[in-house]
Amino acid sequence: MQFFKICIRSWVKFGLFFSQQIHDCCMFGGEDRRVGSRTIYVGHRPCPANEVFIPPKFCDNRIVSSKYTVWNFLPKNLFEQFRRIANFYFLIIFLVQVIVDTPTSPVTSGLPLFFVITVTAIKQGYEDWLRHKADNEVNKYRVTVLEDGRRIQKESEKIKVGDVLEVEEDETFPCDLILLQSSRDDGTCFVTTASLDGESNHKTHYTVPDTERDVESLNATIECEQPQPDLYKFVGRMHIYKNNEEPSLRSLGPENLLLKGATLKNTQSICGVAVYTGMETKMALNYQGKSQKRSVVEKSINAFLLVYLCILVSKALVCTTLKYVWQSKPGQDEPWYNEKTLKEKETNLYLNMFTDFLSFMVLFNFIIPVSMYVTVEMQKFLGSFFISWDKDFFDSEIEEGALVNTSDLNEELGQVEYVFTDKTGTLTQNNMEFIECCIDGHQYKYRDASSEVDGFCVTDGPMNTEREELFLRALCLCHTVQVKESTEQVVPPLQEQRGFIASSPDEIALVQGAMRYGFTFLGLESKTMKILNRTNDVEMYELLHVLNFDPVRRRMSVIVRSISGETLLFCKGADSSIFPRVKQEEVEKIRMHVERNATDGYRTLCVAYKHLTAEEYDQVDSGLREARLALQDREEKLMAVYNQVETGMNLIGATAVEDRLQEEAAETMEALQGAGIKVWVLTGDKMETAKSTCYACRLFKRNTELLELTVRTLESPGKRREDRLHDLLLEYHKKTVGTLDYKSLNWSSQDYGFIVDGATLSMVLNSSSENNLHDYKDLFLQICQNCTSVLCCRMAPLQKAQIVKMVKNSKGSPITLSIGDGANDVSMILEAHVGIGIKGKEGRQAVRNSDYAIPKLKHLKKLLLGHGHLYYVRIAHLVQYFFYKNLCFILPQFLYQFFCGCSQQPLYDAAYLTMYNICFTSMPILAYSLFEQHISIEMLLENATLYRQIGKNAMLRWGPFLYWTLLGVFHGLVFFFGVWFLFSNPALQDNGQAFGNWSYGTIVFTILVFTVTLKLALDTRHWTWINHFVIWGSLAFYVFFSFFWGGVIWPFLRQQRLYFVFANMLSSVSAWLVIIVLILLSLLPEILYVVLRKPRGPYARQVVL
Amino acid sequence: MVKQESESANRPDNTAFTQQRLPAWQPILSAGIVIPGFVLIGLAFIGIGVALLVTSRSIQVLELDYTGDSNGSPCSSCSQSDIANCKCSLNFTLTTLFQGPVFFYYGLSNYFQNYRRYGASKDDNQLYGDLSSFTSPSSSCSPYNYDSSKKPIVPCGSIANSMFNDTFTLTRTVSGTTNNVTLDGKGIAWWTDYNIKYRNPSVTPLKNAFNGTVKPINWAKPAYELDASDRSNNGFVNQDFLVWMRRAALPNFRKLYRRIDASGDYQKGLPAGNYTIDITYNYPVRAFNGAKKIVFSNVSWMGGSNEFLGIAYLVIGSLCVVMSVVMLIVYAKFKFPDEE
Where, in this chain's numbering, is ATP bound (chain A) (predicted)? Predict the structure, then answer.
């Protein structure tokens, strides 16, 4: 027997080791089911059943969120940075310059690259340092460990699995603990998980029975599953060994597990044993990064980059070819005044050609600006502050403003075409109010005037007080609400001020509703629920079991035992999940009420009860206990028991709870629709409720023709559902898509609204595989796209994501935005291009997974129409301008090759080549891209239609790109040939002296810097002092720098090329005149365009009607 | 562990900057501003253009090609032979006074002074008078850094080696007698080049600095003997050398050779009469299809003659005026909504 046990242990350990490997492999795999279990020796005491005590190995409690150490920072960071394609490209260019004899020194590209790499490294190093600091703060925190009956202070990182820890009130748990002992009498403790999921209510956790008294001498092992990230799941069991007794077994569930990161509340201290530590805690497992989202602008940049790369390569090819053509002419290759070195003569011709090609690449490489990446990143990073700074996003109720989780998607906010919104908590406030109830088909409505029950009957019948009270008792008992413990002295609290805490606001509304009818829930004390009834007597019920709510069952139940010994099951849940489980004759009376309430936009719940005989209860009790002890598939087993119990119930009545619309929900929706954004509501709620919310939000209007594709419309006598679906889809398709052609002729618009439910949707989505003839998915999508609004109800979270994915991948790949507040919206928030979380009442999971979080739905309007529009315009202009300014920078250098024998002679001095993008022209565009408001925010918010103007990436399509490119080419030609004509006689000074090649380059460069800066000045519609400072400042800096650079003999330079070139240039009147005339000529088309284009700004209202 | 902070500090700052409400100037280029502006600019440009054109036209230029490709031309014999210091002369007649000050340029065409390798082939430290660079010239001068016997070349490099070495004397024949016209070679190079950028080593006599070095292969005389008549015009600060070292921007260029010394008869310029230029023809250009010429020109405030600027100003000025007229018509026809 003993031997057998040892065998099992070692086998378990082997399994453990093996699963550990798997776990390590799956760290980034997401939600893999982690197999196997771990065994923990409480307090590291060997258990009597096992003589060979091998302490198992687990990871320590050190939290490592940092990426680098002092030693590996440099190589690791450099490696990561050069994995970026742009950095790698510049590295290659730099290496070519170092290796090959190239026209420009390696400094010209090395310096900017070094700058970029250094800045990024410093930023990442700083961030990592912060992480180290945060890690240290956590890791070095002193915790109390109980070891051999003594209390020892330890650093948090030294906690090992199996240590018994003591945690005091308001401390957070340093690792995942199993609660062994609590200072409270009833073996419970309260915990808030605000920092984990944002739910600020107090959750009750329970000690493991029989461990409370003797933690010091407890001899036990815990077997539990391997760590997994789900915060709400935990399965384990505990073997308790007492002196010479057969070990007793206790099941462990999430109610016994205290999570790292949660805070102990309302409890003086607890003792617990560490089960998961360090990176294996549920909190750490939940910190795995989300996938990177990329914006359309970034895709456009990459496309443009490719074009410019082609331009670059073709320029280099053209020049290389021309060089060899030119050299093949007699006398040109090696004139007597310019003989080649021996080395050059001996090198292979093709190798020479190749190095020439590389040299040209280096010469023209500035056309692809390294600084653009830096500027774009800076613009995004700095620009995103304006969202979190915006006081319009501040909500005084939750005392928080907007939150920006990623700054990569700012401009995407200006491109949204589809908004997918959750209903509850997003469109509605999730602030429930009990409106009315229906008992046995009689409607009860609360009236303010009298607090008495007013039963005006739909069917004339006697008031059935017994049923009424049963109903209200059910409301009082069937919930998981806690009474908030007032910090003041316990005065019998006034009814109205009594505070309740629950994870679902519906439950509070119901308990409060029952309170108004005279039944007050007083609280739960050591498994006894107390109710103050109408006659002010306290009724006591023993709480036997809670059959928790879950979204699949859509109901919850409690089993209680009254004083009189009756065992009762109360159940409440959605009508669809209750009606099949009650006696059918009771259903009809109440169904009518439920449907009417749902049409009014109320949330309805049905309440049922059931008497349990002693035998029945014993059966249920043992079934539940058994299921709870199961290590594998506990959920499924529990579910089976639940489903078995919750049958054959008696329906008592139904409740109606109103969920008010969010402030300005309708205005926001209207504005979004005005902006050409299609709004889809995806909800798990009933169709009727959702529909009424849509009407209230003006998503559906009175004249909107509703197309329904739901289970109800599919039910048609004598037809298979699939056929009916087929017919309906074709009919709707004809209606919506067919009228579109007609619409274009005659603009008599018929708005269509489309309603689909979850069950039908899965039919549509799954049908295409079987039925090739009719691709329902396509039809469905076309119908949806031609409707103004779409309502998808009865959706499972995954279906929400499916819908988003379907639209996202449809033709034209529109930009989608998901907005939601609850955990059920996380999947669609992650799936959409932009995910927005509402800082609502359903916890913080949506916020944590979102890209942006806002306190209220109404803020979406400004976020999209205001910020999004501006960000898009700013970054689009930034990108186009960057390509433009580098094109007209490099084009003269390219043209110069035709006049210098294609010898790779740079036109500009190395300092100018290097500084152009870093200093002379970078700041004005950065300031522009941060502060530009081509239309004021108020105007953007007032005229939602302005949003359509930038839709479909309007400013970064090939048209505008071509315009900017042509502008760049035009400017480049003007700069080069203007000066070329001037230099037909290089004697430009009034003392007859002539200018040389560096003067030529400097004149071109001066015109260039002034033109591109003034071009930006022309584009700037919003001149703050910063814009003035930066634009005129850069020009002044250029002049100052040129004087300075040319005014000193620099000892580190091999050639003093620019010595006094700039000053000499300014002494020539002709140079001044040519600079002025060429700048004006370059800007002339631009000025004309600005004057003649549609006036914007304060006058936009007259144009946009 | 970390106790929750009070969150009232979360309220964003209500400043103009954070709320994107900085006071801003929002210029509107409305027709009302632009049309008069264009007219003004246009008129100003036309004015400047006319002035430029008139000035440019008033500048007298005389160009004389002496390459000698065609057999009839005076220097054809010299161009075909390799004889050093081959002499030939050009005659020309001025019918009117050539207004002074008159500048004497030499011009080369199809000559790529802007060739990259050519341009890099010099050692600025040497030219700054750094003696250590005399003994070991920079490798950028290759193949003109050491001669065949491995002696360092000073000044090294292609540019210096290929220095223009034709010389000219100008004579005027007045009633049978030939007078030399004095040519002034001072101040033809940039002041900063002469005084700062280029320096002779501070060794006296200068010749000693060049011990152990050889003159550039194509040079007839070493650097310290470039100008026998003026000791301060030798070494690296020789004006002709400086002019040559400032590389031309384009393959067809002219460089300042001398100024006509404004004294005596030539105070007002070159008087009408018959002139002869005696050329010492050394510089071969026919190998690369080049051409050489002599240019006499006077200058104005805008430098040498250049019609481009005047025409550009005229064209753009008139363009502005025309555009303002067009805009006026457009404006009159479709009254802009921003003109209330």
Answer: 422-424, 507, 549, 572, 603, 683-685, 794, 800, 824-825
